[in-house]
Amino acid sequence: MDQRTKRRRAGGQTITDVARHAGVSPMTVSRVINGEKNVRESTRERVSEAIRELGYAPNAAARNLASASAISVGLLYSNPSAAYLSEFLLGSLDQCSRSGFQLVVQKCDTEEAELRAVDRLVAAGVDGVILPPPLCDASAIVEGLRLAGLPTVVVATGEPPVSASAVRIDDFHAAEAMTRHLIERGHRRIGFIRGHPNQTASAQRYEGYVAALAAEGIAIDPELVAQGFFTYHSGRDAADRLLSLPVAPTAIFASNDDMAAATIAVAHRLGMDVPRDLTVCGFDDTALATTVWPELTTIRQPVSEMSRNAVLLLAEAIRRKGSGQAAKPVDEIMPYHLILRQSDAPPARLGSKPAKSKAAKAGEA
Fold first, then answer.
1. 3-state SS class at 291
2. How remote is the C-alpha of 5 from its chain's centroid?
3. Are 360 and 183 in contact (CB under 8 A)?
4. Mean pLDDT, residues 190-194 taken together
5. What is the pLDDT of residue 57?
6. pLDDT tens digits along 19-35
7. How far apart are the C-alpha atoms of 78 and 249, rounded to whole Å?
8. Looking at 49, 64, 79, which one is the last position of a domain?
9. Measured distance between the N- and C-terminal CA atoms of the chain, rounded to whole angstroms
10. Are residues 261 and 145 in the same domain?
11. Is 68's pLDDT higher than 70?
């Protein structure tokens, strides 16, 4: 291969190619390129090696970012959890500020407004769009953005569309790990509050719960499953129903922290002690998880980092489009962690709290 061909191929490499080659996120590659200190030395060496092997030119990438002030990132939201949305917006704003992008935030309240929301974003002149949940699963919006030719990144979906990049966690295995943790604590009668049916991640969390019970030979009791909608009020109603059963559950696993916080409130209203009389666990690890008492054992979904990575993936897709390159949707799966706090314990009949379970240790790895 002559030197001219080598240079041409090297010029086609992107920050996403480097990230994939090094086994890290595009955000980590950006941090290495920008000389930021919060990167492990082993990771920095791996990224640097990938840059060398691919012939990627980080200085050119830095110039692209420096000249990217004209890039306008659209963020369309409709989220019932204020805690989740707040964390998501902070991450997006921070990364857009770091990269010199303009962030245009639009709200979409109803299904009827979905296509009008797409029209507003197109009229606003955005270069690409980020869709947090639940709009990450709104097929009409995703298709409308595709037809409008706008690069799109969906965040926290359970089933990424073929036309857009995605940043998410493994919701199935995260919920399975939490349920396994509760089983190892000694719980057999475990209630579950489902998330909104309009989100694919909700179904995966429920399936993870079912899989963990089945693996231990515990029969699925439909009475122990209540429908929620990711709101505090829906969690309160679901907890009311579960705790009014003739034989109440000894633990309740809610599909997000808002519904778990509502469950704790219902338990307190009924004169129950959490976790002595009832274990309560959530999902997401938003700020709410450490605001309630007792603080929630929960699954940490790195919401802020996911939104930051979404900005970087979108910027890369916009750059590709601008240079006439074919779109390459990326499915980035980020790690989750099982966070142990004060809201879980074994059933009262089993006595004092044992050492950390295998599931908890695996989640912290």
1. coil
2. 40
3. no
4. 98
5. 60
6. 888 888 877 877 777 65
7. 32
8. 64
9. 44
10. no
11. no
Q: Are 104 and 80 in contact (CB under 8 A)?
A: no
Q: CA angle at residue 264 from 259 to 266, to 5 degrees?
A: 90
Tell me the β-bridge partners of 360.
Answer: none
CA distance 283 to 281: 7
- Residue type for position 45: E
Domain-ending residue, one of 45, 64, 83: 64
Mark whether 181 and 243 lie in a shared domain.
Answer: yes
Q: Three-class SS of residue 39?
A: coil
| Six-digit token string for 256 | 């997000």
Q: How far apart are CA 285 and CA 307, in angstroms?
A: 15
pTM of the model: 0.77
Q: Give me the CATH number covering residue 136.
A: 3.40.50.2300
User: Is 311:100 a contact under the CB 8 Å cutoff?
Assistant: no
DSSP state of 262: H
Report strand pairing: 225-227 vs 331-333: unpaired
CB atoms closer than 10 angstroms to residue 208? 24
Average pLDDT over the chain reads 85
CA–CA gap between residue 250 and residue 333 (Å, rounded)? 32
Distance CA 79, CA 338 (A): 23
